[in-house]
């Protein structure tokens, strides 16, 4: 009898110790990006990081699991996926001066429910054969590009965020006119991914395309794709006015996080200087923390100014952007 009780007590105390030393992450970001960081965090703190990787369905899963969800930390790409989690009440606020001070105000939530970890520009890629060009997003509707533009679906989150930023800048009516002009300029129906458009420029199917900044680096480091990237220049749009449209990868704490303290420690670690350098470098993105340098490779693409409008303001126009994309029959 006595032995049994001791056994049970030992089991309980081990379990408690383990619970303290863990943090559970649901991630839309790929393993190769985040695993080296989590390893470093575990080495420094002794806290084990358990990760579930997924491509979609995070919000649904969290809702299904409800209060019993093991999730502590949610890692996503793109502002719209973070706002989706926030709007559905799946995030909790994280009050941390370290985080708040490390990150520019435009890349964190007003209510501390999410913040960015890295940023990426929505660039305009142009055929090298055109020489240097100075281009704004507004120019995508200029008839001089008729039949010369390639893009992925207008409804991909990266393009929806760009259209939302156009609404924030110009209002809905002008943005619709812009989308209709842009649509008329397309060389082919929207299709494929960002890299596929650069491939199409290489194949001379079009002259310019929209694509995120890090894909330029990824293509240059890919045996098969480096000739695609070699056929284009990477342009930072709107440099003489509001700046280039920037999106983020970001993070939030799950509403019912069972290991909230460890989750906060992991979040603070991810905005620390060494983690920011590592994270941005692995995916060829821009560090969100002020004062952390971009990798040498990315720096070669040149400095740029970014649109300073808060992402939360831009995200408010996501639904309106989807309506306008339908009205313009952009993907049809
Ligand atoms: Fe991407």
Q: What does this molecule look like?
A:
- With 332 residues, the chain is α/β, with parallel strands linked by helices.
- Helix content is 44%, strand content 17%.
- It has two domains: 2-119 and 246-299, D-Maltodextrin-Binding Protein, domain 2; 120-244 and 307-327, 3-Layer(aba) Sandwich (D-Maltodextrin-Binding Protein, domain 2).
- It has 15 helices and ten strands.
- Strands 1, 2, 3, 4, 5, 6, 7, 8, 9 and 10 form a ten-stranded mixed beta sheet that branches.
- Helix 6 crosses helix 15.
- It is globular.
- The termini are far apart.
- Mean pLDDT is 93; it is low at 1-19.
How would you sum up this structure in a few lines?
With 332 residues, the chain is of the alpha/beta class. The protein has 15 helices and 10 strands. Strands 1, 2, 3, 4, 5, 6, 7, 8, 9 and 10 form a 10-stranded mixed beta sheet that branches.
Order of helices and strands: HEHEHEHEHEEHHHEHHEEHHEHHH
In the CATH hierarchy, what is the superfamily of the largest domain?
Periplasmic binding protein-like II
Gyration radius over CA: 22 Å
* Gross morphology: globular
Q: List all distinct small molecules, including ions and cofactors, that are bound in this structure.
A: fe (iii) ion
Helical run tally: 15
Based on helices, strands and strand pairing, what is the structural class? alpha/beta
Helical content class? 40-55%
Unreliable spans are: 1-19
Distance between the termini: 74 Å
Indicate the CATH topology of the largest domain: D-Maltodextrin-Binding Protein, domain 2
Q: What is the top-level CATH class of the largest domain?
A: Alpha Beta
Number of individual domains: 2
| Main beta-sheet strand count, sense and barrel state | 10 strands, mixed
Mean pLDDT: 93
CATH architecture verdict of the largest domain: 3-Layer(aba) Sandwich
